[in-house]
């Protein structure tokens, strides 16, 4: 089965539905070229269709013919130009299109056919002329039957004025039979629809009425193309006598016979379509047209004469065009469900299901359906696995307050008919609150008044409840609502109300039954659409209709974040900015990076960060791509080498700018001090050592000295600068001291050295101590046998003790050393007092 042409609901565009457009095959480019057409207004777009790839391309040339009635278009093979007459209702002009340069040129010939609409036009390859016939005069009451020929090389139109011509008519179909060298014309309209067949020979400037024995029924707005491979003129469709046709006929000039091909599969009936023969693919290509019941087509078909087969190049069925319909996503079935809508007053009650995985619409055609309705509202109740529909406008009945539930698995609609229900309305909005398992309804219109009531529907109990919150948004209709499951809030925006068009944002909390007026940012509008994107935790808004300055249809996209209460324009978002406050923490062969998120996310969720590194400023390359984290440990580095870093944020939209550049030098503590020695002296121990083998990548800034009085018990005793010796004078001679040393740098303290010990000792003493009595002069007479003596003693080292005696043999220890006192007992008579002192050595 051929692939569908991309576009419309596919990835790339196809032309919009239309009729009265122009179509011709450019054999040099192997493209079918389409121009203009009508769908309530005139187009002036140019499209190219490639049968081999089954793709339409919007050529969008810089300059285009005006948007007006295309009177006819034909491909001039010798000049490689598409010749178009456009604007037949006034100011008709001749244009030439070059596919290779994608350029339209207004040829502006001096002479041209009179103003007219709906003529027929084709290219005569033998004569190298574009042939034009008939049409309807600008006044609308005259059908000329003149024949004109256009020569691109001289840019001239010539009125051929043949002696015999077909009667004047509009909307005939014409094709050039290159084998017979004849232009073939069939039917048309002139206060009736003849079904005559004519052939024009440019060489003799003569029209001949062919009068074949059997012909297609009379018609106008049909289409014809010449199949050169089969030497047949192919005709399809048209309208006549109140009918719209979808028959296929083939005309053989040599036999002068029309044959009803009656293929098994054929396009739906239509008129105002266009056809062209693709000679390289040997297919007649048909596009678009206008059908029964006001239906516009945007389909592409290909006809193979040899197989007598029409192939729908877009074979997948799809819902007819409509507006004011309702859709909801059925998560369990993974289908988008569509119901109802309107097209030119014709209401629908069809149910369609769209499967994204297969890119296919299915007409569900359930046995029972709600009435044909427009502007109703639907929401999917995931707990009950039902699509809930409420209200709408029913033709001939008015507003509805029906509640229906659709089950995709059984393809059944059920009229729930609850006992209590909201008043009938349309243009309202509903959304399903999954946390509360309720469908929430707000607002709407009933052809006389607007609503601002809030209702909740519980499928399990089949009950509507008027929630009647104490404060509520103003009345409105054609607003939009979406349930934000991340915040458990129903978000509502805009609409039309009694005071005009709105741009307010409201959030509804079912648990508290409260509406809160939140941020307002997008312009006032109605008939827009909103949906919640759970991946980014944003409510997405698109389009709508605006009034006032810049009024009209909108195609802007906005994202609402409930957590920050902010709308972001996705068309012109604040750009993604750089991460903030990048800092480094260097360590042993590693650097830790920390940063803060960008001030602006550009309207998208941060998905990750990129870390850049270099060994010179300004020459950084990508080091690592991370998730949504705010730290990174860069390991395996060389201590003492400076590294430079930047960080950038990443979103679905791309990578943002890099942060400011920071530098860091990894390092560690120095290695152990070497060759520690302790040299004891009198009241001093002198330590010496050698610097560590490694400074750890940073300059040694000093040393720590540890001391203890037992092995393995040393504690920090002193910190010195970047020196290699230390003298400890706070020692006691004869005591043993134990020492260690450790080097310091900016990263910290290195390991301690080996442990050494030393015992300080006093020097040999050759100076005796001296003592003197200070309290009694010599030859002092006392009246008591007990006296107290005081005095002093001195020594070059230290006084250990002072002793006194009254006879030189019995000694009493004095109290004190350098200043002393003692109590001595005397005998009667003269006494000699002795004092002696001993030093510590």
The CA-CA distance between the termini, in Å, is 120 Å
Give the overall form: elongated
* CATH level 1 name of the largest domain: Mainly Beta
What is the number of strand segments?
72
How many domains, as an integer? 6
**Sheet with most strands:** 5 strands, antiparallel
CATH architecture of the largest domain: 6 Propeller
CATH topology heading of the largest domain: Neuraminidase
Question: What proportion of the residues form beta strands (DSSP E)?
Answer: over 45%
Helices and strands: which structural class?
Answer: mainly beta
Give an overview of the whole structure.
The chain is mostly beta strands and 841 residues long. The protein has 6 domains: 22-312, 6 Propeller (Neuraminidase); 319-434 and 457-468, Neuraminidase; 472-572, no CATH class; 580-664, Immunoglobulins (Immunoglobulin-like, Sandwich), CATH 2.60.40; 674-758, Immunoglobulin-like; 770-839, Sandwich (Immunoglobulin-like), CATH 2.60.40. The chain is 0% helix and 49% strand. The strands form 19 sheets. Strands 52, 53, 55, 56 and 57 form a 5-stranded antiparallel beta sheet that branches. The termini are far apart.
């Amino acid at each position: 089965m051929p692939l569908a042409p991309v576009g419309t609901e596919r990835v790339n565009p196809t032309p919009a539905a239309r009729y009265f457009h122009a179509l011709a095959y450019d054999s040099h480019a192997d493209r079918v070229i389409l121009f203009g057409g009508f769908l309530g207004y005139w187009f002036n777009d140019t499209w190219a269709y490639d049968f081999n790839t089954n793709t339409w391309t919007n050529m969008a040339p810089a300059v285009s013919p005006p948007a007006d009635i295309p009177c006819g278009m034909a491909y001039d093979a010798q000049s490689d130009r598409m010749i178009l007459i456009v604007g037949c209702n006034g100011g008709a002009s001749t244009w030439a299109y070059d596919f290779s340069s994608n350029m339209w040129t207004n040829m502006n010939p001096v002479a041209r056919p009179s103003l007219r609409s709906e003529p027929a036009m084709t290219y005569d390859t033998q004569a190298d002329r574009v042939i034009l016939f008939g049409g309807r005069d600008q006044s609308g009451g005259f059908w000329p039957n003149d024949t004109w020929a256009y020569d691109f090389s001289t840019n001239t139109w010539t009125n051929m004025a043949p002696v015999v011509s077909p009667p004047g008519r509009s909307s005939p179909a014409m094709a050039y039979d290159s084998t017979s060298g004849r232009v073939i014309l069939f039917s048309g309209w002139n206060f009736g629809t003849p079904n005559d067949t004519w052939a024009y020979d440019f060489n003799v400037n003569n029209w001949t009425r062919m009068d074949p024995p059997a012909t297609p029924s009379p018609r106008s707005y049909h289409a014809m193309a010449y199949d050169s491979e089969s030497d047949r003129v192919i005709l399809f469709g048209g309208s006549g006598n109140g009918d719209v046709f979808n028959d296929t006929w083939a005309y053989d000039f040599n036999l002068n016979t029309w044959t009803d091909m009656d293929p098994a599969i054929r396009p739906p009936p239509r008129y105002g379509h266009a056809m062209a023969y693709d000679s390289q693919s040997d297919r007649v290509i048909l596009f678009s047209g206008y059908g029964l019941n006001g239906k516009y087509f945007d389909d592409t078909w290909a006809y193979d004469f040899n197989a007598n087969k029409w192939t729908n190049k877009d074979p997948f069925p799809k819902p007819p065009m409509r507006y004011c319909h309702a859709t909801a996503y059925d998560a369990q079935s993974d289908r988008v469900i569509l119901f109802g809508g309107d097209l030119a007053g014709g209401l629908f009650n069809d149910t369609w299901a769209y499967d994204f995985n297969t890119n296919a619409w299915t007409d569900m055609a359930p046995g029972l359906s709600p009435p044909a309705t427009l502007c109703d509202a639907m929401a999917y109740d995931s707990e009950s696995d039902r699509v809930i529909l409420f209200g709408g406008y029913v033709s001939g009945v008015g507003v509805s307050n029906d509640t229906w539930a659709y089950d995709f698995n059984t393809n059944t609609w059920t009229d729930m008919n609850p006992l209590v229900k909201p008043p009938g309305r349309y243009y309202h909005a509903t959304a399903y609150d999954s946390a509360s398992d309720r469908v929430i309804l707000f607002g709407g219109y009933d052809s006389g008044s607007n609503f601002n009531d809030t209702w909740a529907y519980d499928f399990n109990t089949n009950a509507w409840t008027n929630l009647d919150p104490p404060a509520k948004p103003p009345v409105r209709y054609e607003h939009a609502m979406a349930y934000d499951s991340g915040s458990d809030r129903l978000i509502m925006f805009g609409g039309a109300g009694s005071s005009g068009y709105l741009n307010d944002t409201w959030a509804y909390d079912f648990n508290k039954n409260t509406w809160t007026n939140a941020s307002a940012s997008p312009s006032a509008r109605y008939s827009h659409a909103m949906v919640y994107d759970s991946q980014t935790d944003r409510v997405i808004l698109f389009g709508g209709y605006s009034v006032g300055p810049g009024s009209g249809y909108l195609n802007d996209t906005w994202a609402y974040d409930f957590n920050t209460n902010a709308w972001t324009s996705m068309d012109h978002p604040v750009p993604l900015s750089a991460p903030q406050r990048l800092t480094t923490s260097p360590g042993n062969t590693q650097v830790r990076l920390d940063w803060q998120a960008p001030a602006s996310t550009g309207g998208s969720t941060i998905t990750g960060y990129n870390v850049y590194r270099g060994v010179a400023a300004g020459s950084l390359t990508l080091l690592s791509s991370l998730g949504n984290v705010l730290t990174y440990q860069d390991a395996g580095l060389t201590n003492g080498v400076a590294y430079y870093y930047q960080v950038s944020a990443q979103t679905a939209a791309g990578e943002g700018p890099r942060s400011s550049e920071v530098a860091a030098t990894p390092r560690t503590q120095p290695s152990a001090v070497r060759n520690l020695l302790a040299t004891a002296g009198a009241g001093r121990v002198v330590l010496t050592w050698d610097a560590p083998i490694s400074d750890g990548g940073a300059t040694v800034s000093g040393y720590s000295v540890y001391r203890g009085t037992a092995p393995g018990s040393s504690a920090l005793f002193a910190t010195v600068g970047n020196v290699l010796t230390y003298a400890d004078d706070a020692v006691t001679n004869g005591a043993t001291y134990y020492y260690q040393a450790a080097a310091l740098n900016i990263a910290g303290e290195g390991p301690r050295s080996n442990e050494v010990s030393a015992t300080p000792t006093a020097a040999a003493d050759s100076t005796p101590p001296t003592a003197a009595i200070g309290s009694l002069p010599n030859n002092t007479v006392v009246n008591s046998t007990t006296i107290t003596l005081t005095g002093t003693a001195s020594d070059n080292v230290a006084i250990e003790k002072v002793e006194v005696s009254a006879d030189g043999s019995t000694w009493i220890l004095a109290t004190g050393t350098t200043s002393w006192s003692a109590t001595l007992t005397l005998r009667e008579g003269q006494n000699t007092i002795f004092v002696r002192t001993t030093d510590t050595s």
